[in-house]
């Protein structure tokens, strides 16, 4: 099959398709996570004593640090999108790299926290609370790793000076969703008593 | 659809003549056969696994030996007849893989994607349904056998059915990447992203290997119910976008109309 070459006029429609597709994806992901949160709350309502007791064994420091790291990374990706829109691609590229670095710091912090909890004897099988703790934080980390792929594509497009690309826009939308989901997870697991 | 294809439509005639005309003249006959085969396959899959064998939703992983033995006896007819249908139509899965591979063949991406998907999904029926069907058929054949063996067959069947998702994860990833980097617009970008939702469900089922009860067990609200809802949405979506692909196909090189 022959590979076609796009005329400039056809590109905006395709890119717009991708952004709207990304938004549809974000909505479905948020709906799926909402279902996880509802199930968590139902289990919590069913056994509030176990959940309240187990919750005290989590480290609020880790939770807070993780939240601050992700909020900072979201701020960086927003700045990167603004810089790219202004045509300052070098600055946008550096800010996107910083976003990824903060994302890596989040993953390292999360792995350390898991190690800390497991060393103290709290695992997936300890009780329902820790099952949800490891599941929700685990599936969230998978989303962060997926975010690195989105950011990787965005960095490549920035490096190539692809002015038509909306890869950074999509990566930014996705990264904000990951951040938003973490804030909800942090609230449910660490804060709500 | 091109003018040539529109003009080639048959005039109103008895159904048998219209079918004969389609068989002789429809340029997309092979694609439509593949698409309808896929629809029939997934319909049969749903009827057998949900209604006949009662494998979906799965019974409990924490059931007692007595209850598992009773389950094999109670559902014996459904298991034997239902899985007989599955064994007869398993080959139809090849047509599903073929039309999906064709979608990648039609894209601007390397043919490696199409071949990779075809090879990965040629294995998919084994963990996706055949292991489960064979193990439960063996159990249903002689429900009077040693209860320990029945428990083994039961657990192996449901763990392989729900828990072995690596093949689907990688296959979905291949299709997703192909759609998102394709420049021929064979399939919509939103569907490319929807593949991510489906491949993540393959990760979510992983805890089913250790959880004997609760949300993460093989019949749990997270590992089974939420995953299944996402899977059903995804399956309906890909059947629909593949239909649109066939309708839009003009067999010319380059972007789809």
What helical percentage do the residues of chain A reach? over 70%
How much of the sequence of chain B is in beta strands? under 5%
State the CATH superfamily name of chain A. Cytochrome c oxidase, subunit III, four-helix bundle
The radius of gyration computed from the alpha-carbon positions of chain A, rounded to a whole number of angstroms, is 19 Å
Structure annotation, total helices of chain A: 6
Kindly name the structural category of chain B.
mainly alpha
User: What percentage of residues of chain B falls in helices of 4 or more residues?
Assistant: over 70%
Query: How far is it from the N-terminal to the C-terminal residue of chain B, by CA?
Result: 7 Å
Q: What's the total number of strands of chain B?
A: 0
What does the model show?
The complex is a heterodimer of chains A (193) and B (257). Chain A has helices spanning 11-46, 48-55, 60-85, 89-119, 128-159, 167-191. Chain A has 193 residues and is mainly α. Chain A has a single domain, classed as Four Helix Bundle (Hemerythrin (Met), subunit A) (Up-down Bundle). Chain B has 257 residues and is an all-alpha fold. Chain B has one domain. Chain B is 72% helix and 0% strand. Chain B contains 12 helices and no strands. Chain B has helices at 3-7, 15-25, 29-52, 65-74, 76-89, 92-105, 111-122, 125-141, 147-163, 166-181, 189-204, 221-248. In chain B, helix 3 (29-52) packs antiparallel against helix 12 (221-248), helix 4 crosses helix 9 (147-163) and helix 11 (189-204) runs antiparallel to helix 12 (221-248). The termini of chain B are close together. Residues 1-7 of chain B have low confidence and may be disordered. The chains are: A mainly alpha (193), B mainly alpha (257). Chains A and B meet through helix 1 and helix 5 of A and helix 11 and helix 12 of B.
């Amino acid at each position: 099959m022959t590979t076609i070459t796009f005329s400039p006029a056809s590109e905006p429609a395709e890119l717009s398709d991708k952004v709207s597709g990304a938004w549809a994806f974000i909505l479905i992901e948020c709906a799926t996570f909402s279902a996880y949160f509802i199930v968590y709350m139902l289990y919590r309502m069913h056994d509030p004593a176990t959940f309240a007791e187990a919750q005290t064994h989590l480290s609020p420091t880790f939770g807070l640090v993780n939240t601050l790291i992700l909020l900072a990374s979201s701020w960086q990706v927003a700045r990167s999108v603004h810089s790219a829109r202004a045509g300052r691609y070098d600055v946008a590229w550096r800010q996107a790299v910083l976003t990824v670095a903060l994302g890596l710091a989040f993953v390292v912090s999360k792995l350390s926290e898991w190690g800390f909890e497991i060393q103290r004897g709290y695992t997936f099988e300890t009780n329902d609370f820790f099952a949800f703790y490891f599941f929700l934080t685990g599936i969230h980390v998978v989303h962060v790793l997926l975010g690195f792929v989105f950011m990787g594509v965005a960095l490549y497009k920035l490096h190539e000076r692809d002015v038509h690309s909306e890869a950074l826009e999509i990566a930014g939308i996705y990264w904000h969703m990951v951040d938003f989901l973490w804030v909800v997870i942090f609230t449910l697991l660490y804060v709500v008593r | 659809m091109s003018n040539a294809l529109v003009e080639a439509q048959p005039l109103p005639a008895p159904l048998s003549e219209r079918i004969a005309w389609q068989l002789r003249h429809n340029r997309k006959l092979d694609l439509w056969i593949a698409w309808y085969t896929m629809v029939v396959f997934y319909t049969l899959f749903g009827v057998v696994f949900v209604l006949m064998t009662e494998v979906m939703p799965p019974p409990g992983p924490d059931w007692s030996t007595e209850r598992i033995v009773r389950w094999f006896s109670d559902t014996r007819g459904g298991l034997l007849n239902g899985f007989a249908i599955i064994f007869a139509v398993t080959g139809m899965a090849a047509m599903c893989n073929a039309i999906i591979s064709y979608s990648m063949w039609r894209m601007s991406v390397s043919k490696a994607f199409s071949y990779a998907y075809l090879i990965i999904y040629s294995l998919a029926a084994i963990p996706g349904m055949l292991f489960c069907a064979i193990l439960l058929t063996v159990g249903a054949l002689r429900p009077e056998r040693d209860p320990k063996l029945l428990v083994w067959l039961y657990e192996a069947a449901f763990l392989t059915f729900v828990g072995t998702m690596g093949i689907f994860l990688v296959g979905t990833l291949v299709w997703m990447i192909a759609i998102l980097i394709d420049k021929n617009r064979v399939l919509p970008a939103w569907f490319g992203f929807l593949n991510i939702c489906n491949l993540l469900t393959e990760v979510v089922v992983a805890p089913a290997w250790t959880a004997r009860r609760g949300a993460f067990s093989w019949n749990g609200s997270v590992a089974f119910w939420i995953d299944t809802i996402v899977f059903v949405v995804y399956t309906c979506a890909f059947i629909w976008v593949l239909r649109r692909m066939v309708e839009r196909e003009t067999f010319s090189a380059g972007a789809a109309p």
